[in-house]
Amino acid sequence: MNKSFLKFLTDFGPLAIFFFYYYSNDKNLSVAIPPLIIATIIALIVVWVFEKKIPPMPLVSGILITFFGGLTIYFNDPIFIYVKPTIINIMFALALFFGKYFTNEPILKKIMGKSIPLSDIGWEILNKRWMYFFFGLALLNEFIWRTQSEEFWVNFKVWGMLPITVIFTGFQIGLINKYKINE
User: Rounded distance, CA 116 to CA 126, Å?
Assistant: First the structure.
């Protein structure tokens, strides 16, 4: 199986299944979450079978989807699934903030240093920007779910956060070019 197709399928398949069940059942989260959890677990198993490992991001995401989705179903309260993006983004921001104290360098450098050669100051700035970005996304998610309809939040979660992240990433190109080390 083509590796990029497999990645696309395992990344977006559970999401497509969620949308199918959500919109096919009168926009009901309680109906859409169990298939999302099952599809996420299947996607992680497929990745394991083909790759013999599961990357940290999909694994953490899968655990959190299962945990918060399970709480949403058990307590019949959507607040648990609403706060999942907030918690994930705060976890990422805190990892970027505290990571340098454990590794003596920005976490982003530790993760991406081999693929993007930047000066130390470049890594510091990039790390801080992403930390603030994740805190900002957490606050934005809190604002949206607390002030908008469930359907608006569901659509924002997918069609809003992804483009915001892509646009933010694009704005980092100037910084990367400025602090890039020529090898």
Answer: 11
Task: Mark which of 77, 107, 138 sits at the end of a domain.
Answer: 77
- Residues 90, 54, single domain; the answer is no
97 & 12 share domain: no
- Give the DSSP H or E segment for 166: helix 161-170
Task: Please check whether residues 141 and 171 belong to one and the same domain.
Answer: yes
Q: Residues 132-135: contacts with CB within 8 Å, 24+ apart?
A: 132/93, 133/165, 133/168, 134/89, 134/90, 134/92, 134/93, 134/96, 135/89, 135/90, 135/93
pTM here? Answer: 0.86
Segment 9-26, tens digit of pLDDT: 888 999 999 999 999 999
Given pLDDT bands bounded at 50, 70 and 90, which one contains residue 1? low
How many domains, the chain?
Answer: 2
**What tokens appear for 172 in the block?**
């980092």
Kindly state the DSSP code that residue 78 receives in the 8-state scheme.
T
Q: How far apart are CA 154 and CA 160, in angstroms?
A: 9
Residue numbers of the domain that contains 29: 1-77
pLDDT at 91: 92
